[in-house]
């Protein structure tokens, strides 16, 4: 009898161990991981620094609750604030929870301005999580299906459409914030115009709204900068993180600028596990390793290399619409649904994902080498070419 709820259609493979960019299944077969557990194991599997840190922490202290001081939490909070220019952090256990904190913060901020029913602008095609608030914020009918009544207070506009937001600013006096991914991940690796966030920042300033960036997928060096917003010369008011922050140890974070640092006060929000000694020690080890290895530089360079290799290898192939990327967040956009490529890649020893129906999504480790990038692009070119000829 199956004991696990069938919320996932799992692939027929079981991994036993990992090492760097590779995973090994129970038959000993080796796979190149171009997905990283969906943008999580950015430093690769079984990273020595992370493994040592969590082993050491586990033998000392795992959990005390947030009723007491947690030095690892303070250290990681300080470090993330230094890297982002933000001022304070609430630690959670996942991306959805980090966004819940951001949504609650925006509502309290709105109330402080006298807005009784605060609204948050969210985007079509966005993904913010699976809790009721975050799936209501998410711009996907598939994610929302069956869960009505959804949470109210979200106003949806098309992604990368500044005029739509300007129009909303004129018509809706209840808006208090914008929640936006700097690059849409689940939506199909959609990279907006280069000055998109700059324009959103200006609209937020004019209207006294908060600019809240969801960096759960794009953050932690993935795009070649610590955070995706840093490709533009702006500061957000709120930023959420999760995924790669723990390299596989569950952790989420909601960061706030100084001006809204005190909106979430004692009694307004909390989490039993959030930011416990173990997860924040893992986070510290991740940040240290990313700094020491200049990981964001590697992500930028290897992202460019992989993009170029794929573009050359797929050039002239009818059925490939385009390749979109920033750093090591890449999407190969085909002209047809291509979910079956995941299984074909698996058979060829490569782990990929297909999102938005027709986008092959690559989120490889940020430690990627030229040899691994070559292996990845060669396998992809072979299977995509064969797929387009036969589908
Ligand atoms: C941009 C973004 N926000 C939020 C989430 C939700 O994170 P989690 O699955 O950790 O709750 C995801 C997960 O894919 C994401 O990509």
Question: How would you characterize this protein structure?
Answer:
- There is one protein chain.
- The protein is of the alpha/beta class and 391 residues long.
- The chain has 12 helices and 15 strands.
- The strands form 3 sheets. Strands 4-10-9-8-7-5-6 form a 7-stranded mixed β-sheet, sandwiched between helices. The protein has a 4-stranded mixed β-sheet with strand order 1-2-3-13.
- The radius of gyration is 21 Å and the shape is globular.
- The two termini are 36 Å apart.
- The structure holds pyridoxal-5'-phosphate.
- Pyridoxal-5'-phosphate binds next to α4.
What is the average of the pLDDT values?
98
Give the helices and strands as they follow along the chain: EEEHHHEHEHHEHEHEEEHHEEHEEEH
**What gross morphology would you assign?**
globular
Distance between the termini: 36 Å
Total DSSP helices: 12
Strand order, main sheet: write it out. 4-10-9-8-7-5-6
Ligands present: pyridoxal-5'-phosphate
Q: How would you describe the oligomerization state of the chains in this entry? A: single chain
Name the beta content range.
15-25%
**Unreliable sequence segments:** none
The tally of beta strands, per DSSP, is 15
Rg, nearest Å: 21 Å
**Biggest sheet details:** 7 strands, mixed
| SS content category | alpha/beta
User: Helical residue percent?
Assistant: 25-40%
């Amino acid at each position: 009898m199956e004991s696990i709820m069938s919320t996932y259609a799992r692939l027929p493979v079981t991994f036993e161990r990992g090492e760097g960019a590779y995973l090994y299944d129970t038959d000993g077969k080796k796979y190149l991981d171009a997905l990283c557990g969906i943008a999580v194991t950015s430093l690769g599997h079984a990273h020595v620094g992370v493994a040592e840190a969590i082993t050491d922490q586990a033998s000392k202290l795992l959990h005390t609750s947030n009723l007491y001081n947690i030095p690892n939490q303070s250290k990681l909070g300080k470090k993330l604030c230094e890297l982002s220019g933000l001022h304070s952090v609430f630690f959670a256990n996942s991306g959805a929870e980090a966004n819940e904190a951001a949504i609650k913060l925006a509502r309290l901020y709105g109330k402080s301005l006298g807005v009784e029913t605060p609204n948050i602008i969210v985007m079509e095609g966005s993904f913010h999580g699976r809790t009721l608030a975050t799936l209501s914020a998410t711009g996907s009918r598939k994610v929302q299906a069956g869960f009505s009544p959804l949470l109210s207070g979200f106003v949806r506009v098309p992604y990368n459409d500044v005029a739509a937001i300007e129009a909303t600013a004129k018509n809706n006096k209840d808006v208090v914030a914008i929640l936006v991914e700097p690059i849409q991940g689940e939506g199909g690796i959609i990279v907006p115009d280069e000055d998109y966030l700059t324009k959103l920042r200006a609209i937020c300033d004019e209207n006294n709204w908060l600019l809240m960036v969801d960096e759960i997928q794009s953050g932690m060096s993935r795009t070649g900068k610590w955070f995706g917003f840093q490709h533009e010369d702006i500061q957000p008011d709120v930023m959420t993180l999760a995924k790669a922050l723990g390299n596989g140890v569950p952790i989420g974070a909601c960061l706030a600028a100084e001006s809204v640092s005190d909106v979430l006060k004692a009694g307004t929000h909390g989490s039993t596990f959030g930011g416990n000694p173990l997860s924040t020690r893992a986070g510290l080890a991740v940040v240290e390793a990313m700094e020491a290895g200049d990981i964001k530089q590697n992500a930028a360079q290897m992202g460019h290399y992989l993009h170029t290799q794929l573009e050359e290898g797929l050039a002239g192939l009818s059925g490939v619409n385009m390749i979109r990327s920033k750093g090591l967040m890449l999407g190969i956009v085909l002209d047809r649904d291509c979910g079956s490529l995941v299984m074909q890649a698996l058979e060829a020893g490569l782990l990929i994902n297909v999102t938005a129906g027709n986008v092959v999504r690559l989120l490889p480790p940020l430690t990627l080498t030229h040899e691994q990038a070559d292996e990845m692009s060669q396998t992809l070119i072979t299977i995509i070419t064969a797929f387009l000829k036969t589908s």
